[in-house]
Amino acid sequence: MGSVEEPEKPISLYDSSSSPTRPLLSKHPFPSSSPPPPPLLDEKPIEPEPDPTQFLQISYNYGPRPFKDLPFLLLFLLFVLSTFAFGIFSIFHSNTYYYDLSSFSYDSNSTSCIESSLSETHPNWFRLYSFLSSSILESLIWSLVVTFILSIPICLLLLLLLKHYTKQIVYASLPFFIVIPIFLNVYWFVACTVSSSCSDAFPLAYRILVLVFVFLVIGVIVWIFVVHWHRIELTVSIIGVASDALWNNLGLVWVLPCLTLGLVVYYVPIVVFLVFARQNGKIVPRETSGEYTCVWKQDGWVPAYYALAILAMFWSAAVMVEVQVYVISGTVSQWYFSKEDETPRRSIRSSLRNAFGPSLGTICLSGLLIGVVRVVRATVDTARQEDVPGIVNLILRCCANVFLSAIDFLNKFTINFVAITGETYCTSARMTYELLKRNLLSAVFVETISTRLLAGIVFVLSAIYAIVVCAILKAVSHLKAEAYYVAALAWVLLIVVLSFFVHVLENVIDTVYVCYAMDRDSGDVCKREVHEVYVQLPISRNHRQSLAPTLVV
């Protein structure tokens, strides 16, 4: 509220101060009836600023939304349809002799490859069966299945605890951020020293080097928390608000994994197409050192199809990530702007309808940008690891980093704003930046400590779970060192599931942040508990200098 009124105060102050100065300058010719009104009328057109006033009533757009960014939707559909069309063609055009290459030999009479005899090479089903029936694989399968089933109630229990006991959970987890890595580091070192096979394969000097390195990493973690200790209390409140918002929209916990499952189902035929695309070709003779052998020669269009299919899969994955962000933002924003005694109905359904309807083109554009950023970042990281010398390479890397930073700055909060208003991508990026700038809020991040704290909590829970799994396997099975590998895989699976939960919670934090900025811009208070927390966020560093003259005036 104050941010909307303060820019008008200097204008009125200057207007009122300018009216006395003109009579003073023209006091001798006409004392009181000279032209003060005309100058005021002349200055009036300078006063209105359409950009700030046009965003004063930003809220969730419940009405019908027109389709936006259609060219990018059409381009995405062209990629997908081309992938499926050429994939179906590859199935019907495949060569069944692809897997019988070993049974072909060169015939000098016909100067071609002919099938000489049936090959006797068959898969070793007995070896496969013995592997599948081994106790190691059986324990692994049961551990992963039980872990995946238990991960759902673990996520719900963690969300409930974060909603009601955020402070207790965070402060109780902080010591384990240090204790568990120290325990695992010392336990590994002692176990490897006691075991003769491990000590022979891993000399003492290397063991000590790894031990010291892990302790240095633990020291860095301690230093990070000491430096940011003053922000932990605010972070705890932000996590509590986000957990409450997610708990009030619990349907997202089921819808988002279903979207991921839908992406996997969508990938299945493309993978099948890629398998059959390899079979498009023919067996031809090739001369090597005066001898002819039969080799497989792919059709010329197969590499191009591989590139097309991989790009389509990569773009589809980025689009699905943006769809999930869109659905989270649309659902949470409807909850935020609803009245206290009302619960929004069919909010998830309307968000899904808008995501796969009017805003799908915008989502495709955002996914394309994310895909380009990841490819460029991977290329830059590869070039940095290769350490190619030269000033040109250094300049290109600097330009790429500037480009990536600009895209990250542009894309942050944009899809959140699109889900709320239904605007185009470029319009939403500009409006989001201006909205946050007017209210002296950061357009880059909300609170980075919350991500680290949530990641630490996930690590603690998954590590405790892995220790329990390892103890159970040691007690009920005949596994020895294999129990550690099974427990490690169960730990990885639980981390993946809990990381997805953290990803959802981070998007909720961003959405509430944008909704709070809209509230602050229009002078409303839709969720008082949110304002009590987010008002404690520091003022953006980019706008502190512009705030100082206003305070002086």
Automatic annotation (TrEMBL):
Keywords, in A-Z order: Membrane, Transmembrane, Transmembrane helix
Q: Which domain of life is it from?
A: Eukaryota
Q: Which InterPro entries match?
A: Choline_transptr-like
According to the UniProt entry, its GO molecular function terms are:
transmembrane transporter activity
Q: Where in the cell is it found?
A: Cell membrane; Membrane
Q: Where is this region: Disordered?
A: 1-46
Span of the secretion signal? none
Membrane-protein topology = Multi-pass membrane protein
Q: Which Pfam families match?
A: Choline_transpo
| Cellular component GO terms held in the UniProt record | plasma membrane
TM region(s), chain numbering: 72-92, 140-162, 169-188, 208-229, 250-276, 305-329, 355-376, 453-476, 483-505
| Family in the record | Belongs to the CTL (choline transporter-like) family.
Function of this protein?
Choline transporter.
Q: What is this protein called?
A: Choline transporter-like protein
Organism (species): Carya illinoinensis (Pecan)
